[in-house]
Amino acid sequence: MASLRDKAQNANTATATIKNMPHSESEQLATRHSIVFNTLVAFVVIIGFSLISMLASLYLADALEGDAEAINQAGSLRMQAYRLAFTAEHGPQDLLAERIETLERTLRSASLRSALHRHGDTPLPGLHAGVMQHWQERMRPLLDAQPAQLDDYRQEAPEFVSELDVFVRTLQEASEGKLGVIRALQAGTLFVIVLIAFVLIYGLHNNLASPLRSLTRMARDIGKGDFSGQVQIPGDTELSLLARTLNQMSQELAGLYAEMEQKVDDKTAALTRSNATLQLLFNSARMLYSQPDDPSQMMGSLLAKVQQILGTGPISLCLNRTAETGSHTAMTSNDLQPPEYCKLPQCDVCLVNQTGRLPSGEELVTFELRSGQDDLGSLRVAHPEGQPLESWQTLLLTTLADLFAASLSLAQLGQKQARLALMEERAVIARELHDSLAQALSAQKLQLARLKRLMQKESGQAQLDDSVQQIDRGLNSAYRQLRELLTTFRIKVNEPGLKPALQATVEEFGANSGLQIINDYHLDHCPLTPNEEVHCLQIIREALSNVVKHAEADHCWLKLTQDEIGTIHVKIEDDGIGISPEEQRAGHYGLIILRERANSLNGNISIGLRPGGGTSVHLRFPPAYRHIPLKQEPVTYERRDIHTNPAGRRPSHDASGSA
């Protein structure tokens, strides 16, 4: 259908072209002789001749009507003339009179009068008058005489019959003459019709059938896409006009098809080029983002492919650290080495940067690699002077420059984030050391100074032993805190999500302590950031460590949920001896660490007694993917009389409580 529509449109174009032709060319497409008109004239002539012949035949046939009867009547007169002689000699007088009357009626019969009228231009009326006169003047008086003069009648009868024979023969010849005219008219009409038909057939064969075959063959060739054929039909008929029109339309279609094929070739080349361009951009993006740390080498490996697709001169790439410090890397698509004109690191004295033209005379078009306000470098392409880049080449280079700039910007951003993460981690380590081990060592330093003073004063052995024991306990506490810090710093979240790391932590504490830990995790649907996962895991490990060391519990319940507004709830409960707020004043820093980690999550933590006995730690924080304002609440305690502990156990020595 599309092919038919295209051909119809082309035909309409050719028709419009014919309409818009000059007057002289339009006259060439005019017709002076019409095959249809000539054929109609021939048929009109044939019909006219046939009609005239038919009418003439009808007229002549009508003129012959009654001639046969008249001939019979005239022929019967001869027999009646001889019968009168016999009747006059042997028959009665009445019969003779009756037969005389019959003969006279026959002579005056309507058929004879009609024949005489039809053949009035022939000798028949005179012959009939002679027969009537002969009968009246010479034949009947012989029969009317008394007696009848039969001998004279018999002598007169042959002459009378002879006249009748002449009359009958003349009537017959007149009738046959008209029949001959009818036959001649029909034969002439048939000849004329056959002649006109032959001429018509001959003319139709030469002017219609043969041209139609040629036109059909040409139309079939045009349908197959062959526009080289031409049809020459002489004359000024409709078919010759059609042949000239088809010839002109074929030429127009040949030009249109040639132009269309050229456009198709151009479009195919453009699509191929676009496909290669898109493939290049896709491969470039995939290669650049697969190695985001150092994309410069990947960029250099793409330059040769870019030059091949563009079909231009060498392509060079200059990369800057900052716009003020100049370029630090330069390479070309030929050998990935700096261009011959390059003056690294003295970019300000480079002639190309000043003139934009190579020493060979080629012009350089520069595409800046820019990310926001940062100038990251430039992508340059060389092309001959006076041959500017095409739009698709400019678009490809612009897109590639943006892609390079984005890759460089992401690489710099990743390096900056890595540095920030390293600094933040160092700050965390320093804070942890300051809040735990540094204070413990500072206390031991004071104890050591006290011991020196006691030794200088030569105090008693009891005081010296007490000071040494305090230093020993302090060193053990510092060593324990160091081990806890090392365990905390070695926490890893290797698999995606908090659940696998939490399960490993539960298995670790349960295997080492014999504590039965029940893990109730309901955050599979909640995407936490790595920072949130690490802090949650550290808080849970700190709480579980306190449960194992101080709570003397048999069971521990760990529950992670999310409420209807999106807040994350982490609860660690045990059935141990509980917690006393006064324990915090004894110099334990676990509670302070828990609170600082909760603050890092923009949340809060509450520590208190569990209603059924033991300790409850409740952490609440809003996840990063849900911006939920959460009111900070201070750490709370629930006091409980130690002497009312149903288990009869002593309180925990860690102010952070158990989880």
Topology (elements, then pairings):
Elements: H1 2-19, H2 23-28, H3 35-63, H4 67-90, H5 93-107, H6 110-118, H7 124-144, H8 150-223, H9 238-290, H10 296-310, E1 315-322, E2 326-332, H11 351-355, E3 363-371, E4 374-383, H12 391-456, H13 461-489, H14 498-513, E5 516-521, H15 530-551, E6 555-562, E7 568-574, H16 590-600, E8 604-609, E9 615-621
Parallel strand pairs: 5-6
Antiparallel strand pairs: 1-2, 1-4, 3-4, 6-7, 7-9, 8-9
Helix pairs in contact: 1-9, 3-8, 4-5, 4-6, 4-8, 7-8, 8-9, 9-10, 9-12, 12-13, 14-15, 15-16
Description:
There is one protein chain. The chain has 659 residues and is an alpha+beta fold. Among the domains are: 61-194, Up-down Bundle (Four Helix Bundle (Hemerythrin (Met), subunit A)); 274-416, Beta-Lactamase, CATH 3.30.450.40; 491-644, Heat Shock Protein 90 (2-Layer Sandwich), CATH 3.30.565. It is built from 16 helices and nine strands. It has a five-stranded mixed beta sheet, with helices on one face. The chain has a four-stranded antiparallel beta sheet with strand order 2-1-4-3. Strand 8 (604-609) and strand 9 form a beta hairpin. The protein is elongated and about 230 Å long. 24% of the residues are buried. Residues 21-27 and 632-659 have low confidence and may be disordered.
